[in-house]
Amino acid sequence: MARSLLSHFPILSNSTSPLASSLSCAIAPSKCFPRHLFGRPKASSFQCLCTLSVSEPAVPETSSSVRKRIVSGVQPTGSIHLGNYLGAIKNWIELQNSYDTLFFIVDLHAITLPYETQQLAKSTRDTAAIYLACGVDTSKASVFVQSHVRAHVELMWLLSSATPIGWLNKMIQFKEKSRKAGDENVSVSLLTYPVLMASDILLYQSDFVPVGEDQKQHLELTRELAERVNYLYGGRKWKKLGGRGGAIFKVPEPLIPPAGARVMSLTDGLSKMSKSSPSDQSRINLLDSKDVIANKIKRCKTDSSTGLEFDNPDRPECNNLLSIYQLVSGKTKEEVAKECQDMSWGSFKPLITDALIDHLHPIQVRYEEIMSDSAYLDGVLAEGAARATEIADATLNNVYQAMGFLRR
């Protein structure tokens, strides 16, 4: 799940397509899933959760000055790569202009799989600096470290008591990762990862959560868990304990980016670009040098077909590289399709290489400036954690009260 600088820092995106909400399904209807995925289905329980696409200027629908809230974050393990940037961080830059936004570094999630203890703190700072270098603006968004807000862990434990084990056993990511690791090496935290993710979201009474294809199931569990806790402990039961009554948690909606939500590997157009891939050749890291970027694009997997085209299922690498070029160049899909339809790979690779280098260079320069001023970065994270704690503690106190705990 995922989470700025002074307001005069540039937004480093050449895209002219701002984000917005529109009430249309953002993915194929066949990929929509039932609302009560984890509970007992009801006759009228099917509801498309892909109701929010982003394509026009986003104006939160509210009759007051209070903005809708969005939370998101990225793990600090490994290097932040192009997939993290184009699929998440780049979209945050526009979302922060219209929503109340909290972007955090999810370091607690990072320890669910084996990791380097000597690198965790450094990687956390690096990730925060990259957020800021990409254009996250501290006058509009809060940036903080997940473990710096203790309410995340406290709420996770409370939510765990209301989470049926069967729900967690259905998590596709857990099945895939545990199969790779082997039962003897799988931690309990990997199984309960979705409960911590639910805590991350529900603590802040989030209205929307930017999600990619691989996180939709986790968000659905979050929604189901919010409704379950509201039913078990909210309403009149909570009011009898001295609370305000009604719902304890907002039930968040998914926010599906219009493009770039799933950037694929440079070595396999059918696999998502990932930090966990053993080959660094499979990804463009945001801090890669010009020579490294050029070498990776030169060696990336292509095909032998003539001309370049989008959306051909038999040419996944072609579609992926064209999509990346479109996003970093700021051109429309139609413009890119026309420009590249008669190109050979020999002509296209220098083109996408130059576009990537030009797009990432300002981010890399700003990153170095931020990392050279540790006091500034520490101040940003402290200020972000203080604001996040204020919001989170209010929610956590309500949950403790509704669940019948003795007041502190």
Automatic annotation (TrEMBL):
The GO annotation for biological process reads: post-embryonic development; reproductive structure development; tryptophanyl-tRNA aminoacylation
The reaction(s) annotated as catalysed by this protein in its Swiss-Prot or TrEMBL entry are:
tRNA(Trp) + L-tryptophan + ATP = L-tryptophyl-tRNA(Trp) + AMP + diphosphate + H(+)
Q: Which molecular function GO terms apply here?
A: ATP binding; tryptophan-tRNA ligase activity
Q: Which PROSITE patterns match?
A: AA_TRNA_LIGASE_I, PROKAR_LIPOPROTEIN
What is its EC class? ligase
Q: Do you know which Gene3D superfamilies this protein is assigned to?
A: HUPs, Tyrosyl-Transfer RNA Synthetase
Localization (cell): Mitochondrion
Q: Secreted: is it a keyword of this entry?
A: no
The record's keywords, sorted A to Z, are: Aminoacyl-tRNA synthetase, ATP-binding, Ligase, Nucleotide-binding, Protein biosynthesis
- What is the similarity comment for this entry? Belongs to the class-I aminoacyl-tRNA synthetase family.
Return the protein name. Answer: tryptophan--tRNA ligase
Q: Which organism is it from?
A: Eucalyptus grandis (Flooded gum)
